[in-house]
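Appendix B, record 7
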Amino acid sequence: MSKRKKRSRGSSKPGKIPSVQAVTPAARRRLPLVPLLLLVIASAILLGLWWNARAPVAPVQNVPQRVEGSAAAAPATTATTPAATPAPADYIGRDACAGCHAQEDKLWQGSHHDLAMQEANAATVLGDFSDATFDYYGITSRFFQRDGSFFINTDGPDGKLTDYPIKYTFGVSPLQQYLVEFPGGRLQALPLAWDTRTAAAGGQRWFHLYPDDRIEHTDQLHWTGPYQNWNLQCAACHSTNLTKGYDAGTNSYDTRFSELNVSCEACHGPGSRHAEWAAEASPPYSADADNGLVVQLHSRWDEAWKFPAADARIARRNTPADAAVTNVCAACHARRSTISETVTPGAPLADSHRLAMLTPPQYHADGQIRDEVYVWGSFLQSRMYQQGVTCMDCHEPHSTKLRVQGNALCSRCHDSGQFDTAQHHFHDPGTPGAACVNCHMPTQNYMLVDARRDHSIRLPRPDLSQTLGSPNACNQCHTEKDSAWAAAALDSWHGTGWRARPHYGNTLNAAETEGFRAAPALLLLAQDDSM
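Structure tokens (predicted):
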């Protein structure tokens, strides 16, 4: 995905240096301390959340080796003879998995993971390449076909209009981008994307990802520059078993992958030892046996959640899921930069990546998403995560679709008689205001058309909008009203006690606006285990 915020997985936002404003002597004295305190607190919050999430991935055990020849068995291993270390597992490809896992493979086909990246051809290209044109600050780009291939005529690294063949498609919904091959092993993502939504929804059109910014060929944000480079910015999460292969001496890439898209082994790890086990094993299979998988992804989503009593309103997980379940998803669904290319699927994310903190401008002061941060940092803030909910409890991992549509997804764990009623949401049934996610997981658009939900799954707090300037779910629907109106509505439903609920956003905002006076509250927040 070639967008300005996408590059921030691996780098800071480039741009013009902001003008220096006048600083009073008092403010100058507090500047060094306050940002430091804020960074310490924000780091402590995310580190604490990460530490709670951190659990060692089950080690790969030895797989019994087949003994060649039946006449003489291998001597027994003694205490003084260490067992042979099995060879590292290799990537064997989806076809080897599909033979035994046909149902999962069928779910995966056509998923966003399957279509994450494809070779450009008549079956995969969704955009209009029938001599369509698009104007952007005086540059007219043209999309056309020639000899069965797809081309764009647009400004290149020298600013001149040039014909470029489309090598790959990138993504599929709600937009599709296109990759162009350049010397040095580079693939570059075009800034002109095809809106794949229906015409009625405003789609079926070309659009520029930076419509308000004039980005010329000399700008590093230009589509031929480093911030739109697939090898560096995008490839690791859109392909399987990727090695970037950058050579600093030649400033070139020899990027390799075992599969073009996000396939089985992107999440389950290399499968050769599992395939060896499957060739020898026979049912019934023991859940505790070493099946040769690099990572175990047991969530028990369909049986782990139980209502502890007949009158209980919220279900509880009876046994925790494998920590690797969330870690596998977080590796791509988090804002982070890469420290090491050696990544074991399911391992704690901080082992191989530098994580984005819950600080501006990535997040609002109350922790809501602001910049493109994906979902992991938000989800760690949620009460759902603290109670043991994993990605797989709500999302079917092979199809990437929700397990159940609408409020029925939430009522699997939240009693519908208590929560899916007008007495709870105060909206007419069947209206947008009655949908759980619209109040607790409001959306924000990225890449102009991609509406993504905030996974912190929070209670609406229009009162914080008044003090912190953060958004709230109420006014996202009721755009003609202000936050004071929304807060008054909550007062009429619940009384005013909800306003007294403590929130770390007030403390973090004070650090930004009140300087040293916020230090005592920041220190208390750092020591608050509940946060």
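Remarks on this record: The longest strand covers residues 161-170. The longest helix spans residues 33-53.
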